[in-house]
Amino acid sequence: MVPTVFEYKPRLQLSPYIESYLLIQCEESFIKSIIPHHSFVLTIKLKGNHHYRIHSDSKSLPIISLSGLRKTVKHNTLSKGAEILIVKFQPWGAFSFFNMSMKELNEVGISGYDLWNQSDLNEMYSQLLESKDNHSKIDHVEKFLLKMIQKQIIDKRILEAISQMHLSQGKIKINDIASVLNLSIDTFEKKFREVIGSTPKQFSSIIRMNSVIQEIRKYNSLTRLAYDFGYFDQSHFIREFKSFTGKTPTEFLT
Fold first, then answer.
1. Which residues of 34-70 are buried (b: 16+ CB within 10 A; e: fewer)?
2. What's the CATH fold of domain 4-148?
3. Which of these, 47, 62, 205, lies nearest to 131 by C-alpha position?
4. DSSP 100
5. Concatenated DSSP letters for 109-122?
6. Where is the HTH araC/xylS-type domain (predicted)?
7. Can you give the C-alpha Rg of the chain in angstroms?
């Protein structure tokens, strides 16, 4: 049985940092493969168990955890009766909640208790468990996040770079972006990793493959699809696709 998913948009003060909230409730156990996303995700476990597997490495998710950008598919397992609340940050959003470079959190998952004050987290978590409805849960999370915002200055050139990547569906060359922004490659990568966590190349590749997934059913030829999205050849494209989704393009389409 597919879980019930409720999606909520953030209040105005948090919209520059937060993309959305997801509240997921499972009547039965559920397994889902999650493809890489372009931003950090905060997961709060309210009921039941939540395990995930990347390659052959299987782990149980902490009660509150922050996950960085990934290159490969993640397989999630939620137990019967499980309930989780997910905060999906804007690509640059998580940077404003932590006094650190986001590159330290790329490709990793870390407990919220290693990032924020324990008493603040405990207070928020207790309020969540006592909440009677979904809107109250979102309200408590938002009040917590508003307290945690730090005054981080984000270079507008990084925001412009992200915009260019999205507009080109991830097909634009990183050298071209750096040139337009009047930055050396080294400076561009350093500034980008500090705010976003990943390298510009990794971030752009995530956008590109997500664009491929949106467009793949419009194509009759995988060779043409690979060519249009700038892959070297079809075999390279298939390897990248399987790493990203856990399936070959043919398996994905069936």
1. bebbbbbbbbbbbeeebebebeeeeeebbebbbbbbb
2. Jelly Rolls (2.60.120)
3. 47
4. S
5. EEEGGGTS-HHHHH
6. 156-254
7. 19
Residue 59 has pLDDT above 90, yes or no: no
- All residues at 6 or more sequence positions from 240 whose CB lies less than 8 Å from its CB, including other chains: 205, 209, 231
Residue 195's Cβ-count burial label (10 Å; 0-12, 13-18, 19+) is buried
How many Å apart are CA 182 and CA 56, to the nearest integer? Answer: 42
pTM: 0.93
Q: Which of 154, 157, 23 is nearest to 88 (CA)?
A: 23
Contacts of 209 (CB under 8 A, 6+ apart): 35, 36, 170, 240, 241, 244
Is 53 in contact with 74 (CB distance < 8 Å)?
yes
| pLDDT tens-place string over residues 148-191 | 998 788 999 999 999 999 999 999 999 999 999 999 999 999 99
**Spatial distance between the Cα atoms of 112 and 66, rounded to a whole number of angstroms:** 6
The dihedrals phi and psi of 86, each to the nearest 5 degrees, come to -115, 130
Rounded to 5 degrees, φ, ψ at 27 are: -80, -35
Q: Where are the domains of the chain?
A: 4-148, 156-253
Q: Residue 1: pLDDT above 80?
A: no
Token representation of residue 7: 């999606």
Structure tokens at 88: 């999906």
